[in-house]
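Exercise 3.2. Students should predict the tertiary structure of the chain below and write it as structure tokens, then compare their answer with the key that follows.

Predict this chain's 3D structure.
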Amino acid sequence: MSYVRVSIIGTSVGGEVWSINPTIDPTFEFGTTVDQTALDAAADAISALSPGGALLGSLSTAFSVTGCRLEVRDDSTDALIGISVQVRPVPLPGTGVPIRPAQCAIVFSLRTDTPGGSGRGRVYWPNIAGSITTQLRITPTDQTSYLAGMATYLHAMESALATAFPTIGFDLAVRSRTTHSTPHVNKIQIGNVIDTQRRRRDKMVEDYVSQSF
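Answer key:
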């Protein structure tokens, strides 16, 4: 048994690195080895995908998608079976105007039929540009657009893998390293509160101004 970890990799004008890392579960197994040519083709196809317009607008011109990393791992041990890293020839920048700090993100919650934490996952997407209400919430219109855009983006990743490996089906899933299970996602949700992803913030170089006291 195995699973695929998809990492969409990006950068910002400040030099920090960000990523989203959904898990996709194969319906049929790769076996003990993976066709490297097919894996490279899948990674290249996913790297070339463009997130939905709403997602690109949220990303802002300060952030870009730069490539894709695919890892095929053993379901029971998490041992690496195959890997491919593909870089976009030209980074894909967001389209919105940056108005918020780099650690701001919108959170997509992934739900499965498995109860508890092992059946839940999250995808953090940079939200540097999207509009907000006077209550400092994401607008209902943007919520709907973001959700549709992310669902389309994730389905396109599944399709890219299925095209490269036509005898294997693929489903978005949640990976639990505690239970070594990979339940399939049946619902994606988004809240209306802007969250933070501090691991991005920790990598950002900060300039200080001082005053004698």
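Discussion points: The CA atoms of residues 119 and 134 lie 34 Å apart. The mean pLDDT is 91.
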